[in-house]
Known about the structure:
seven-stranded parallel β-sheet; globular
Amino acid sequence: MQLYPYQQRTLDAIKSKIKGTCYLPTGAGKTIVMMEDARQRILNALEPMTFVVVAPRILLANQLCSEFEQYLKDQNVAYMHVHSGETHHQSSTRSEVIAEYNDTAIGSGKHHFIFTTYNSIGRVNESDIEIDVVYFDEAHHCVKQSNFVGVAQTSASSNAAYFFTATPR
């Protein structure tokens, strides 16, 4: 896929830092930048990686998963959801199940994507898995008092963390 120049600049900026915030207006392709970053990381990986994608709502987490699934269809990837909503993928809010599924995916040589919400990110943190990359979608939700501790812990413990928003606060 050919990125627009501003998307390529955003992707280049992400590659040059391990933590950062990406401000792009609505419709500018924040999700494309996330997916392309993940794809390039997968292509360059020497071993399977764990990615976490955080969304403000279950519906958006499911939508993002569908988009990532389509974009990464040629990659060796396993998907899991950590929220109380319905999905056809493996799903749980129990930390031991999250850890077990992550270990199984990584152990079988698959890159593992976990889709969760700001309300459920604490469950991912409790699983004590190693997170290679976390993408926070609609990151203006990070500053809500109820989300701050989980977001801060995930960002601090992951190897790379990126916050995407069109409406910074």
